[in-house]
Fold each of these.
Amino acid sequence: MVTAWELYADRPSLLFQNHLLKGERARSIAKGKIPGPKHIKPADGLLMIGALQSAIFNNPRFSCIATDTKGVIQLFNVGAERMLGYRAYEVVDKITPAELHDPQEVIAHAASLSIEYATPIAPGFEALIFKASRGIEDIYELTKVRKDGSRFPAVVSVSALRNSNDAIIGYLLIGTENTARQQAQQERNRFFAVSRDMLFTLGFDGYYKDLNPAWEKTLGYTTEELIAKPFIEFVHPDDRDVTSGVAEKLATGTPLIAFENRYRCKDGSYRFFLWSGTAVMETRLIYGAARDITESKQAEEALLKAGALQNAIFNSPNFSSIATDAKGVIQIFNVGAERMLGYTAAEVVNKITPANISDPQEMVAHAKALTMELGTNIGPGFEALVFKASRGIEDIYELTYIRKDGSRFPAVVSVTALRDAEDEIIGYLLIGTDNTARKHAEEERTKLEEALEQIRQDQMRFKDEFLSHVSHELRSPLTAIKQFTTILLGGLAGELNKEQRDYQQIVLKNIRQLQAMIDDLLEVTRLETGKLTVEPERVSVMIAVTDTFNTLKGSARAKGVTLSYDLAANLPSVYADPTRLRQILIILLDNAIKFTPEGGSVTIKGLILSQDTRLLLLEVSDTGVGINPEITENIFERLYQVSARTEGSRKGLGLGLYICKELVMRQGGTIWAKRRAAAGSTFSFTLPVFSLTNSSVKSAPNVLEEAIKSSTIPMAVTT
Amino acid sequence: MSKKKILIVEDDGDVRLGYQVLLRANGYDTFFAADSISAISEARKQMPDLIILDLGLPAGDGHVVLERLRGPVNMDLGAIPVVVVSGRDVRGNKERALKGGAKAFLQKPWDDDELLSLIARLLGQPDIYGQTDGVPVWELEDPAIESPDR
């Protein structure tokens, strides 16, 4: 006979799984080197079975009650005594087990058995053993009644006891106290009640049968409200079709792992539910749970959105995203980079650095510029591309990428260092955009600006040419007018009377004004077109001043204005264009006379500047109306008109002082105006003194401009 | 004493009439040409004592006429003093005219006194101020230009 141990010894693999036998000893037993535990003989086995039966029968956790065929109790074990409170002698040969049960339950049990077997079964012991007497194992739950009248649930197993002829000699009722099971049930009920998940039982008819309190809490409906309507009515209209489909599939027996839909709250809002469930076909019920995932759903959606956005950015064909390791070797090369550069990711990843696809000349220049900017030597190559980024400085620059086919395009590249949790640089990200369109637009704009500038210049030239032409042409008729006016005044066409003569004089005066305006207009045209030339030479100030003086003394006398000049002794020559110098003096003197009332005076002064002997100062002072101090700057602007004029003077073109300023400046001098403290104005200008050095230099230095304007000099000179 | 002859080359009829009235009243004989081609033929025909030459002329401007008057083909006309008169800018034109052999440059519109004085002096006559010194007019007028050959 083979014992259990011998069996195990023949099956070493099982032996090794025995946790009681480990290591060397187990292996030795397996190989038969040492004997295992001592062999158990068959007689010992029978003894053991008897002991086992005895242990079971005396187990206080089982009630074992044996009866005779009539049901009268013959055996009543320790467990029965403990559970029911009776002593064995109190029941043996006295009562049947039926009397230890809840009579109502026994009646109900008998009734249900009567229906099941279609034969009347009396409530009582017969009902308890009916199945067992027919060889059917019978286990049922019943409430037992203790001696003290208290009750407890029990599960009772009933077997018929038979003799060797298979005749029934009695019944054995083994009962276990069902309180633990009941407690478990209560625990389940508690779990059902407190669960935050919404647990449900849903009938195949579409109505809820049972709902835990979580439903009320989540949705705001009472359980009654939820049970009153088909569950589908609470589902979001858009989700109803799919939900019905899922429910139908569940009802075919396919367990539902997860399903999401929207469920209506009492306040009309919807919440996201995650459902799971299983149908039990026998009961035609679906058992399941729903979880409110609205918050996590929203968070998830936000995350998804962000993720999708990142994805969209990274996969955008309009950005080249190139990530490298710390050494610059490309690790990621996105769709945009592929599209822009013509390489596939496989061709570049782990092979080259972004510097290899950038214009080498630019890389050198970029490295040089960085070296200059940061004062440290930076080599051309990837280092130059990421130098700033590696130091945490945001770096965006324009460079030229070279495509696989060798063509080039301008890109704007932003470089960022990628860092790990310890803030160590693990690589770089270069995001580039194709700058071609912008460059193109820039070029277009430049072209347009150039075209506009050309048009503007053309217009300017046309204007200047037109003005020049018109001015010249005006001179011809003016010549004829002047000729005949002079002829009439000269009496060449017969003697005029006094009135006729006076009128002709007026005509002549206006002709001269018109003539002066045309001259000014032409002069400005020449200034603007750069045709005005200044040819400086050694010029005697004395001659220029006296010459001008002689030219204008007539008109001064006619107006009753005293004209005088005051030139310092040994006044040096200036380095100027003599014609221009006289032109300046005539304009200033003419203006002064024009703005000075009868009885006033106009004076020309000439002196060497004490501050700078290289400059000669000429001043024209008058006792006229004077100029507003606020406009002393503007007065030299083109077309500037002084509103205050003495009577009889006429508005000119406003070009005289502008011409003066331009002429003075072009000869290396400065001009300014001041209101005199007493009355009238002083117009002052400087010209370089002639010397052997400046005669070889075209434009003389104008060092004292600021000092002169600071007003320390002019007043001292004029007063 | 016979009257001095002055040829006026001027395309504007009104201005020509103005010259005529003024110069005849001042004792000169006047002849006229209205374009650059007739200017030369008229000069040869009349052999004037002085030519007043406008710059803006049909069929070639006054500078061209001056060039031909002073050129080798017209040696016989070379000694006739020429006064260039123009509405054009003094700058450039004056210098060019004087270099081209003109005795003076007058900006239109001129003063009659100035014109008469200039003519008188160029013809060696006493001018309205009684001066007969014969100093070249352009030297007085513009010290910057010392001589036509500068």
Amino acid sequence: MRDAFFDALTALGAEDERVWALTGDLGIGLFDGFEAAAPGRFLNVGIAEQNMVGIAAGLAYSGKVPFAYSIAPFITSRAHDQIRVDVALARANVKLVGVGGGVAYGTLGPTHHAIEDVALMRVLPNMTVLTPGDPVEARGAARAAAELDGPVYLRLGKNGEPLLLPEEPFAVGRARVVREGGDLTIATCGPILGEALAAADELAAGGVDAGVLHFPTVKPFDVEAVAAALRRSPLVVSVEEHLDVGGLGSAVAEAIAESGLPGTLRRVGFRDRFAHEVGSREYLLAGHGLDARGLVSTARALAA
Amino acid sequence: MTCEDLAGEAHEARRLVLECALASGSCHIGSSLSLVDVLTVLYRQVLRRCDAFLLSKGHAAAGFYAVLARAGVIDAEQLVAGYCSDGGVFPGHPERGLPGVEITGGSLGHGLSIAVGRALAARRDCDGARTFCLLGDGELNEGSVWEALALAGHLGLGNLVAIVDANGLQGLGRASEVLDLEPLDAKLDAFGWEARVCDGHDHAALEAALAPGARPVAVVARTIKGYGVDFMEDELMWHYRSLRPEDRAIVFEALEGSRRAA
């Protein structure tokens, strides 16, 4: 996913003189292509996320399209006031890119996990939040971010995520029905889509026909897609590599509550807990019930 | 402009600050009076087309708006009517999008980073364009300011100017007692800037200090909070206090008195 993003960034830098890339001293070697394609428009600001976001705002006020890159928790939490005032309030054309969304950097510990980032970005007026599910979609999301005139938070996983989706142009604000299913719907965003699809397979083997509804955009939220899912079945399980408050699960809950349609939701995410346990992404997802197995058990209980 | 003209402009700007304060009953009068001379020199003598000015200490909004009004960027009557009033258009901290307002102020420690971004873009696009950013000395408590200072010094951004409105007072007391950052010029020099200390109410000295340099230029403008109204001068409480309509005569008498004395 990360490499796919950088391919897109390099292409954007070559095509558009306005595109700049900033990093908070992260991404060794990853900006080489961009630097060659866009000489003079790459800047490592040092380990200083607040300054980086302010600089990105200043570039955007000057007509540039800056992509500011760091690990997801650092760019969203550390620099939140700059994001709020200089970017969101000013509707600046800044693209914030967080790598390692969720618990992608599992063993590095909770400081390197981002399980509040979607909530922090989603509450900001004017902010668009993109959560692609696989590398190809990440490439499309980067291009869509550049084309959109306004603040964007692009949440990436790490690297080596499988291809899960047919390639199609990234449509900001539109959910994708990845799998049809009449008994219940699993709503998801980001690369944890893989667990949702695996869970749907297992549920099907047990006679439960689960659909998978993927949200590559969490804000603006596709409430129509939720309503359409409710018309197929009132049962919804949301799963996100994030706290179960403030992110996708909350957006789904809000959409159900205001849809006027009957619906029952189970939110799967980190439940008011940091992932303190030492372990890989897979280990942490399993331990917190966010893997396919956990999803199957939540979905079966709901469908029973 | 002649020295007399500049003095007259600064005086008229101070009158406008007081009109805004009287009409709105709003605070931050002392902060606004301390930077009027700096901004008058900047807007009348220094800024050229393509240059940009960013007010980072947004609480001095009335002083900034007053100088913008004197420079013809905004209308003085609309300013007095619309400053901090219900349904008005000029908030107590300037918001990007208002005429002449480049950045939203109010959260301290933001402006210099944005100025670095502007200076980087200007260095590429409009050779010779300069970016000026005005900060408070209390604002220098914010760590983000030092991130920006360090990077600008490292990059040698010669088209960037930071001006510190060093009035020596901040939220709960004297800057030297709350968080002493002196010697400021030595610190700024050490961060790769060309620090220039001057009297922040001496127009000729300010104009000289704002001349271009080879490195980023930091002007430490030694000012007096509340300058021009004797009972507000160097008084912390005029960060918070507001004027009542019945104070009109006494405050304008003080302002005129200071002008006669000068």
